[in-house]
Write a structure and sequence with these properties.
alpha/beta, 15 helices, 45% helix, globular, binds ligand FNR
């Protein structure tokens, strides 16, 4: 790979800085809601079914590995391990943005295709920015023989990036991609959340699947500010919506849009709470990145096996046999979230 390419270098820095800033504490607002237990669950643990419909395919678990990387030497190694882990757990896995592949296919395609070669029958998701054209989006899908496409919205990140875009006309382009590509499309944020106004805009142009990817975990205003030695632009993250706030924003749209949740997922309890608030599946980037960087693949497998076991324990405690049952569990919001919902007219 050419050493000096700026975009490839940026991928390396993102991996390094996301891990540097990772903490076990997230601030996605999951701590500000409570689920009540059921003292009479009337179920047996082996009746609990975590399966979910993931864009038309039945998956055994309601979790997925969200977009992280591709397009650099370290990302080839990382994506190889990530795809093995996804195959082992049988959960969907997304590539990082494939813009660098569209620009430098020969140099970078291997760093992405490992996601498919190591996981031939898995659910693999391609990822592009909202400014690529439909033909480019289709070639990203074709490279991975992808089952779905993510289009990321990253305005705050671009503003915080020294080399970031300054043009943000995306809707017409997204509309065209959704109409032309041959797989389902998920529009996603990158950790700053999505408001109901934006969900309305996306619905109008034909988008039917949105990953609200809220604030509280990986913070690209912080990461880009660390790359930009001249300026501290972390204040840009003050405009964001936490993952829980974004899920509240999505409530009026959940009968029309399939909502995926990500951003600051740290624990099985966070997953269950996100499902309770209407997510159809829950994505993780920072958490799996941290484990694969800090521990071996087999240690990470053990971590996620335990994580999945605990999803079932929590379901038992709230008396839920299925994901549909989780959505009926009693829930209590703290005053700040009630205030948020009131001011945003969310009932
Ligand atoms: C990301 N994320 C991301 N998203 C995307 O759509 N395309 C991308 O290329 C990337 N790149 C990327 C690199 C790294 C190192 C990380 C950690 C994350 C964003 C990611 O998919 C997710 O939306 C946010 O990170 C919030 O989730 P977590 O990390 O808090 O679980």
């Amino acid at each position: 790979m050419p050493k000096q390419d700026e975009q490839m270098q940026r991928k390396v820095e993102h991996l390094f800085l996301a891990e540097k800033f990772f903490t076990d504490e997230a601030y996605a607002d999951f701590d500000n809601i409570r689920l009540l237990h059921n003292a009479l669950p009337e179920l047996s643990l082996n009746e609990i079914d975590l399966s979910t419909d993931f864009l038309g395919r039945k998956m055994a678990l309601p979790i997925y590995f969200n977009a992280i990387t591709g397009g650099s030497n370290p990302s080839t190694k990382f994506n190889t391990e990530l795809s093995k882990l996804a195959r082992q757990l049988d959960i969907p896995v997304s590539s990082g943005s494939m813009g660098v592949f569209l620009r430098l296919p020969n140099e970078t395609s291997d760093s992405f295709t490992v996601l498919r070669t190591n996981n031939p029958d898995g659910f693999v998701i391609a990822n592009v920015s909202a400014k690529v054209n439909a033909q480019q989006a289709q070639s990203a899908i074709d490279l991975l023989n992808a089952n779905a496409l993510q289009i990321h919205l990253n305005g705050i990140q671009e503003l915080a990036m020294p080399e970031g875009d300054q043009e943000f006309y995306w809707l017409d382009n997204i509309k065209e991609i959704v109409a032309k590509v041959n797989v389902p499309v998920i529009v996603k944020e990158v950790g700053f959340g999505i408001s109901q106004n934006n969900l309305a805009d996306l619905y109008k142009i034909g988008v039917r699947n949105v990953d609200i990817s809220g604030f509280g975990g990986t913070d690209f205003a912080q990461i880009e500010s660390a790359r930009n030695h001249e300026l501290d632009l972390t204040y840009l993250d003050q405009f964001s919506l936490s993952t829980v706030e974004s899920l509240l924003e999505s409530l009026p749209y959940q009968n029309r849009l399939t909502i995926f949740a990500s951003g600051g997922i740290r624990t099985p309890m966070d997953v269950i709470k996100a499902l309770r608030l209407g997510a159809s599946a829950v994505g993780m980037s920072g958490l799996v990145l941290h484990h694969l960087q800090k521990y071996s693949l087999s240690e990470t497998e053990i971590f996620f096996a335990e994580f999945i076991k605990q999803l079932k324990l929590i379901m038992a405690v709230i008396g839920a046999k299925s994901i549909a049952d989780i959505k009926k569990a009693p829930i209590i919001f703290d005053e700040r979230l009630i205030n948020y919902a009131n001011q945003r007219n969310i009932t």
